[in-house]
Design brief:
CATH architecture: Roll
Strand order of the largest sheet: 3-2-6-5-4-1-7
Structural class: mainly beta
Shape: globular
Order of helices and strands: EEEEEEE
Mean pLDDT: 95
Low-confidence stretches: none
Distance between the termini: 14 Å
Strand content: over 45%
Number of strands: 7
CATH class: Mainly Beta
Helix content: under 10%
Largest sheet: 7 strands, antiparallel
Radius of gyration: 12 Å
CATH topology: SH3 type barrels
Length: 74
């Protein structure tokens, strides 16, 4: 099991929907890269991560809560 900390850069292992900071949702495909901004649960056995993604087309950021198993190291 990979354990990540805040500010670690991760890659998605599956597609997710993310909430754009200024409103709305955006699809983030498998392979998308983002930054962990919050660890959910015990830091030594996290249940999920809050991951921030930059959306170039919108010049904005989006957040998604992803399961621990849905992200991997780059």
């Amino acid at each position: 099991m990979n354990i990540f900390r805040e500010n670690d850069v991760v890659r998605l292992c599956k597609d997710v929907m993310a909430n754009v900071i200024t409103g709305g949702e955006v699809f983030i495909p498998r392979g998308g890269e983002g930054t962990v901004v919050l660890v959910h649960g015990d830091a030594d056995q996290p249940s999920a991560y809050e991951v921030e993604f930059y959306i170039p087309d919108q010049k904005d950021f989006a957040l998604a809560t992803v399961e621990q198993s849905a992200v991997t190291k780059i």
